[in-house]
Amino acid sequence: MFLVLVYLVGENESNVVELLKQKTMDVFFPKDTHPELPLDPDAERLGQYKFPLHFTPGLQLVVFAGGCLGTLARYGIGHALPTTPLRMPYGTVLINLSGTFLLGMLLESLARRGSDLGKRQLARLGFGTGFMGAFTTYSTFVVEVVTLQHHNRASIAAAYAAVSIIGGLICSALGIQLAAAYHRHGKKQ
Which of 14, 16, 153, 165 pairs with 64 at a CA distance of 20 to 30 A? Predict the structure, then answer.
């Protein structure tokens, strides 16, 4: 394939490699069309981007490991609190509400401790993106709402949706507030 490109472009190999690099960068990092907005954190300066973190194999492994553990935790709670189509899915409610609380607490704690580098970045990716991303489940929530409606349980479906959405916002805010209070208390000592 590479030789075909060299032939078609009519350039030497090094020029083709540079052309492919530039085209790849143009796809992943289009030019800044809104200079009035804050600079993308992946940008070293306007129009010049560093290699994105989500392409780094070590960080992908951190997210993967966290995701495996989050999946196991969700499976365990789902197994302990099984769902039937005729009642409120308490397992999913517990998973999603506790997940939003913990994610709010984690991200607020990390933000108050400094920039997203080193151990803080690993914690955010492993626990936030990996564990919480696999632990919480929007897709199951939606399927359960539709299933409840399908079984003529519209009132339970509506209550479940309200508890999940409003409760998620409240739990996230509580996690943020708890982390902020902990951080303020720690600074006083």
Answer: 165
